[in-house]
Amino acid sequence: MSSTRIEQLIADAQAAFDQRPVEIESGLDINDAAVLQLRKGCRLLAGAEALHEEEYYTLVIEASFVAIERTVEFRLLERGTLNPADLPGTHPGVYREAASVGIFSEATAEDLADLWRDHRAKTYYQDGLATAHRAKQMYALATEVHAFITGRSSQSHECLCNPQE
C-alpha cells in the first residue's frame, strides 16, 4: 500500500459518489425524504441484529444510536416540522428537536442525549468497551424507539422491519 494507492482509492470513492446511483439497496430507492430516513432506521436495526449475532458489539451500539436518530428524523420530516436541508446537524440536536415537537418528553430527550454523550462516544472513541450486554440493551432501546415512533405514524406501513402482528 502506498500513498499513491490511497490517493487513487480516494478519487475512486469520490467518483462513485459523484455518479448516478445504480444497484441501490433494496427498499431505499424512493423519493420521499421522510420514508428514506425511516427505512434507513429499519436497515440499521436489521444490521445491528446481524452484527450482534457475530459479536461485533461496538458496531451494534453505533448502529443502534444511528437507528434511533434516523427514526426520529423520519418523524420530524413526516410531521413537516423540518425539511431535509434543516435536519439537526448534531446527535444531541436530534433529541432536542424531538422533544421540542413532542416526540419525546424533555426528560426522555435529555436521557437519550446523555446516553449518547456519556456512552456512545466513550465506546466508539475512548476507553469504553463494548460488551454483549451493552449491545443487547442498546439494540432493545433502538428497537423500542423505532416501534414507538412508527406506531404513531400514518406511514407505518412503509417500515421495512418485521410486519406488525
Structure summary:
This protein is an all-alpha fold. The chain contains 6 helices and no strands.
- Percent of residues in beta strands? under 5%
Briefly note the structural class of the backbone.
mainly alpha
Low-confidence stretches: none
Tell me about the biggest sheet? none
Shape: globular
State the helical fraction.
Answer: 55-70%
Number of helices in the DSSP assignment? 6
Number of strands: 0
Q: What is the CA-based Rg, rounded? A: 17 Å
SSE order, one letter for each helix or strand: HHHHHH
Task: Report how far the terminal alpha carbons are from each other.
Answer: 51 Å
Mean pLDDT: 92
Explained architecture:
There is one protein chain. The protein is an all-alpha fold and 165 residues long. It contains 6 helices and no strands. It has helices at 3-18, 33-53, 57-78, 91-100, 106-125, 132-151. Helix 2 runs antiparallel to helix 3 (57-78) and helix 4 packs antiparallel against helix 5 (106-125). The longest helix is centred in the middle third of the chain and has 22 residues, at 57-78. It is globular, with a radius of gyration of 17 Å. The N and C termini lie far apart (51 Å). The model has no long low-confidence stretch (mean pLDDT 92).
